[in-house]
Each structure stands twice: as C-alpha cells, then as structure tokens.
Predict the structure.
Amino acid sequence: MREVVPVPVPGLDLRQHYGHHQSPGVRAGGLIFCSGMVAINPDTGEREHGTVTSEARRIFENLKLLLESAGSSLDRLVQVHAMIYDRIEYDVLNRLYRQYVPNAPPARTVMSVQIEAGFKVMLDVIAAA
Amino acid sequence: MALEREIIAPKHPVLPVSPAVRGGDFVFLSGMTPVAGSAADGTVAAETRQILTKMARLLEAAGSSLASVVKVNVLLYSMLEYDNMNTVYANSFPSIRRRARSAA
C-alpha cells in the first residue's frame, strides 16, 4: 500500500512552486515518509532563508502541519535525518530541536552537507502514521 | 492505523536523541559513530567494526538482529575509504551482507 499524503497548505506544494518532482509525504506500511524539508513559507511557498534556529523552527512548524493533516504528529516521529550546513551549528540545532521533540525523541542522524538553494537546515523524517 | 511507537534503549544523557525507536514492524536507529577516544577511534576499518558490533547489540536489545536489517545509510569522510569500510562490512558481518545500502 502506498498513498501520497495530500499537500495540507499551498506553500508546501514544491512541485507547483519549484517544479520539484516529489510529494511532501508518502504513507506506506503504517509509516509516513516525508521529503527532506527546508524553510518554506507555508502560505506562499517562498524560501525563508535565515539562521539555523529560524529555518529549523519553520521546518518543524511545516512538519507539524503536514503530519497532523495526515493524522500523525511530531510526537510520533520515529527517525530524523537532520542536515546542517556546518557542524559548528550542532548545538544551535539541538537547542531548537529540544523544544519540538522534548520527550522520547526519535532516532536521529545529523550530517553536515551542502543543502539545496543555500539553506542551512534540512530535515528528512519518518513518522508513525 | 495507530501504530505502536516504543523507545527501545536508554535515553541519551545529553542529546535529544534515542538510540533506537520502534515504528510498526521496523526498528529505526540513530546514526552511530565509534566511541571517541577508544581503541577503535582511528581507521575506517576499525571504526566500521566497532559500529557494527554496537549496532548488533542495539538491534538485539530491540529483539532484532543484523540479519534482519533492511536498509543502511553509510556516511564516510572520503569515498577513497569505501573499500576499507566495505571489506569489514561484507567479510566480518556476513549476516548484514546484501541489504539495501547507500554510501556517501
């Protein structure tokens, strides 16, 4: 069974805004696999470049919209691949991260990589549906 | 549709991560590195061996094993070391051979 999660808000439709050939989330086997998410305005689809903190906050808010629209939530994350542009910001990411997943945090891997369009953070997550 | 979501291993004392999380039929592990300062902290081969040994223990704690692994993401500091990782991966841990894997 494979089911594309409908885009909950117009801004998250990256196919429409940027021509990316991807869905924000796909449900399969009781799990929701999300695309790597960057800081995008949920209403307009505009890129919101900023600090690690501001970008990560925006991503978590968007993930919340996406997961809750699909009957899941941030509390049901099982795995997070967190990408940051420079490992020097590791602690900065952790401070914000803690606010959004305070208890029983998901399994996580942090990588420092070059992210599309000069973003500082990308989160690639899997949640229980 | 309500799947069980269960934390498997002890919470990390400092970081906001869990070593392993069960989601439905699957066990998801956090990225693993060697223990800093340990004897295995050095070559790619030694680090790979230590990580896979730790991974085997963690999976067993979750009621799974290396033999049940379906997907592994391997992160290397340089692709020049690919063979050094792969030799240990394939030879010392035959039960995990031929699983889906990506190396970057």
About this structure: Residues 44-61 of chain B form the longest helix (18 residues). The longest strand of chain B covers residues 20-23. Chain B touches chain A through 24 residues (CB under 8 Å).
